[in-house]
Design a protein that fits this description.
Elements: H1 5-18, E1 22-24, E2 33-38, E3 44-51, E4 58-66, E5 83-85, H2 92-95, E6 113-114, H3 118-136, H4 139-147, H5 149-167, E7 176-178, E8 181-182, H6 183-195, H7 202-221
Antiparallel strand pairs: 1-2, 2-3, 3-4, 4-5, 4-6, 7-8
Helix pairs in contact: 5-6, 5-7, 6-7
Length: 222
């Protein structure tokens, strides 16, 4: 039976929650599932789930580490290493246990797991536990994130959105407008972008609003 986004999230959500991740359903970032957690040094670890385009039951995941939750944001001086497919964090000996076939191609570390097999799902969760500390404890990557001016800009904009919402000066309610993001966050994001003379369109407003809103939920969850 073909795995759907809803089925995949229902399958993995309880397990990822135990690992400290929170699911967010308002993603427009091209993933079939989005989970985040706040870790040390004020950083956020984001996990995006992708269902294979051609093999219905297979899925994989990508990590993103930064001071924001905009998975895949690697423009400017944001380090490309902030965004990594989890299979690429496996050692060769760990990769060797996976059969080399049309899905898990020989010579690569791009691993896909079978959502219809309990053993495969449990293995995916094991790999998350195994690779997370490797990913978030890379001194050179942490330094690049800390020194990135683009990261600082994104963090500052999200902070300004959060402060604007907290000020209660906007004439908005908590009415839902985009996914689970309250309308007031979208209004604040648009204003912050205008104040900073940035590009203002539907995508940039949603992206900033959702990042700020996710950060607020994650910080409140600690």
């Amino acid at each position: 039976m073909m795995i759907t986004k809803a089925k995949l999230l229902k399958l993995l959500n309880p397990h990822l929650k135990k690992l400290g991740f929170i699911e967010f359903k308002d993603s427009n970032l091209g993933f079939q599932g989005l989970f985040c957690k706040k870790i040390k040094n004020g950083l956020y670890l984001t996990l995006g789930l992708t269902i294979h385009r051609y093999y219905d039951n297979f899925f994989t995941g990508d990590y993103y580490l930064s001071k924001n939750t905009i998975i895949g944001a690697t423009w400017g001086d944001i380090p490309n290493e902030s965004y990594e497919r989890i299979g690429f964090l496996l050692k060769d000996t760990e990769r060797a246990i996976y059969p080399e076939d049309e899905i898990n191609v020989k010579g690569t570390h791009d691993i896909w797991w079978n959502a219809s097999e309990e053993k495969s799902v449990l293995d995916f969760l094991r790999v998350i536990e195994l690779t997370e500390p490797r990913f978030i404890n890379q001194p050179e990557l942490l330094l690049k994130i800390r020194e990135s001016q683009e990261v600082k800009i994104l963090f500052t904009y999200s902070k300004e959105v959060r402060e604007m919402v907290a000020s209660n000066l906007l004439n908005e309610t908590t009415e839902k407008k985009h996914g689970e993001t309250p309308k007031i966050w979208l209004t604040a994001a648009e204003q912050v972008l205008k104040n900073n003379k940035e590009i203002v369109n539907t995508y940039t407003v949603k992206r900033l609003a959702m990042d700020a809103y996710r950060q607020k939920q994650l910080d409140d969850n600690i």
